[in-house]
Design a protein that fits this description.
By secondary structure, the chain is α/β, with parallel strands linked by helices. Helices cover 43% and strands 16% of the residues. Helix 5 links the parallel strand 5 and strand 6. Bound molecules: nicotinamide-adenine-dinucleotide (NAD) and thymidine-5'-diphosphate.
């Protein structure tokens, strides 16, 4: 299979490309990525001279660039997005442009050439759960609450509309928070690990009792691949990690793994509109496609700490330049 991967130089996209090229010797990948602050082509350096891999720099909003790439592939796996909630609060415009309009441009090209389309989405489209609420599943009504989740919800609706209206062969996966190698150090787990390596404090929003369901990135890539090859056309699959924990639990686990004490915690002003809890019921993908998460949270955190320890140059690069400007703005707001 020849796959157009959008956003393949980002966190999950680059893990997915490693998974595909490492698992299927006959598969080929074109990676279309704009190379924003969240990307790093170093993630894929081992494939750069492999004839099965090609990188194209550009935006998914550029129809003239996108169309011939879609034409030459069998399937599109769509990761490209602005993905950080905090950035969407500071300025939603790029979220609308990439996540909504970019998805529309890809869908139009897929429609023109009748191509298989898998859309990678998030559980954040379902809104926020109370502590006693049942986890999200494929029938949970949409209730996005941040500009990020609203833009992803819009893109999910567009993807479904192209299935119902034009018979486009689509699938959607809505997954919980990912962590693991190549995670952008603006996000919670890599931010904590790298701040602790740098001897800095870790900013905990509000009371730290918000709950996320952590999914190790290789488990997520395996789920996407299964849905792409065996998923039922027109269907949605919820993908969760069996890893529900309050944020403060994660912080304390990482403090202990890195030999630090609680004086490294800095409670800071809460995120505006902060969703309290996400949790996923993944029984549909388990029942229909035989998928379940294989990496426990304890094991995954250990691997992630080890990966960041071994890849200091990588995360120091990611934490310089554009990142510093963002961080300054983020803290002025607080
Ligand atoms: P990321 O921010 O690490 O990477 C996004 C990639 O998309 C980057 O390489 C960036 O350069 C690229 N990109 C951005 N705008 C683009 C454009 N206009 N054209 C082409 N490329 C562009 O994101 P991620 O964490 O790898 O997330 C990938 C996908 O998975 C996203 O769609 C996100 O909504 C979804 N998702 C992520 C998580 C998570 O925990 N990270 C959870 C659920 C769903
Ligand atoms: P994040 O990684 O931004 O993912 P999302 O908002 O998409 O779930 O944040 C995960 C959780 O960690 C979320 O509840 C916000 C919280 N958080 C902090 O407490 N401090 C931080 O510095 C960051 C980035 C996040």
């Amino acid at each position: 299979m020849k796959i157009l991967v959008t956003g393949g130089a980002g966190f999950i996209g680059s893990n997915f490309i490693h998974f595909i090229l490492g698992t299927y010797p006959k598969d080929e990948v074109i990676n279309l990525d704009l190379l924003t602050y969240a990307s790093n082509l170093e993630n894929l350096a081992v494939w750069k001279d492999d004839p099965r891999y090609r990188f194209v720099k550009g935006s998914i909003t550029d129809a003239a660039l996108v169309e011939p790439l879609v034409a030459e592939c069998d399937a599109i796996v769509h990761f490209a997005a602005e993905s950080h909630v905090d950035r969407s609060i500071l300025d939603p415009s790029a979220f609308i442009e990439t996540n909504v309009r970019g998805t529309y441009v890809l869908l139009e090209a897929a429609k023109k050439h009748g191509k298989r389309f898998h859309h990678v989405s998030t559980d954040e489209v379902f809104g926020s759960l109370g502590l006693d609420d049942a986890p999200f599943n494929e029938r949970t009504p949409y209730d996005p609450r941040s500009p990020y989740s609203a833009s992803k919800a819009s893109s999910d609706h567009l993807v479904r509309a192209y299935f119902h209206t034009y018979n486009l062969p689509v699938t959607i996966s809505n997954c919980s928070n990912n962590y693991g190698p190549y995670a952008c150090p603006e996000k919670f787990i890599p931010l904590i690990i790298t701040n602790l390596f740098e001897g800095k404090k870790v900013p905990v929003y509000g009371d730290g009792m918000q709950v996320r369901d952590w999914l190790y990135v290789s488990d997520h890539c395996r789920a996407i691949d299964l849905v792409l090859r065996q998923g039922k056309i027109g269907e949605t699959y919820c993908v969760g990690g069996n890893g529900e924990r309050p944020n403060i639990w994660i912080v304390k686990q990482l403090l202990s793994a890195l030999g630090k004490d609680e004086s490294s915690i800095e409670y800071v002003k809460d995120r505006a509109g902060h969703d309290r809890r996400y949790a996923i019921d993944f029984s549909k993908i388990e029942r229909e496609l035989g998928w379940r998460p294989s990496v426990t949270l304890e094991e995954g955190l250990k691997n992630t700490v080890a990966w960041f320890k071994e890849n200091e140059v990588w995360w120091k690069n990611m934490k310089s330049g554009e990142y510093e400007k963002y961080y300054e703005k983020q803290y002025q707001k607080r």
